[in-house]
Specification:
The protein is mostly helical. It has one domain (about 1-235). Helix content is about 75%, strand content about 0%. The chain has helices spanning about 1-15, 15-35, 40-45, 55-70, 75-80, 85-120, 130-155, 155-180, 200-205, 210-235. Helix 2 runs antiparallel to helix 4 (about 55-70). The longest helix is centred in the middle third of the chain and has 35 residues, at about 85-120. The protein is globular and about 55 Å long. The mean pLDDT is about 90.
Amino acid sequence: MGKLLKYEFYKLRKQKSFIICTLTLLLIIFFTNAFSENVTAASAVSSAFSGGYLTAVIIGVFVSVFTCEDYEQQLVKNIYSKGYKRTEVYFAKFIATVSAALIVCALTSLFAYFIGLVKGGAGTFEDDAGRRMFSNVLTLMVCVCFFFGVASAIRKIGGVIAVNVIAPVVVFLILSAIDSKIKADFNLTTFWFVSFFDGSIFSLFAGEPISFGLKTGLSAGYIVLFIIVGWLLNRKTQA
């Protein structure tokens, strides 16, 4: 497993899609804050992931390319031929993918802090800023797990990117249509992970937000679900 992780992180350093996606997010952070008024380091960091699903989609492009390349180029067969099991390969790639996403989160937060510091000083964090940032990063990890599971099952870059971008939105729209029909005391859309991003268009359409504790619990549940489903689909798919 250790050698597999070394191999995955070596590929990560060479991965152009990782660099491109990271630079894209940094540019978004720059333009968002450079032309906004009353920006401070605190406000810039707090809003670093306010793009929500857009941020997730950009990272999702990297996840799709990074996960599928070995399968499309048949390199994974060479790995299996060395005696490594599917489960080992799956989780080594998963760990590298999640680590890459967390690195992107750290870089964008630091860059946002620097931009805000230069433009308006340190500023003051709002009382719930820590919870909102944690919730947004956790939701981003849910998206990464979903993207990775889809990529591990389909293994074709073009198809994976299309499914990863469209499927969560389609599910949200279906749930929204159901909500409008049943008119219950709660909205199903509030329990779908794309609506967990604080301040996103999905959270606005979902209606009354759920509590921080419930959102955290559901996010953890989604992460476990997507990891297990992705692993099971990966085992059943021919290398």
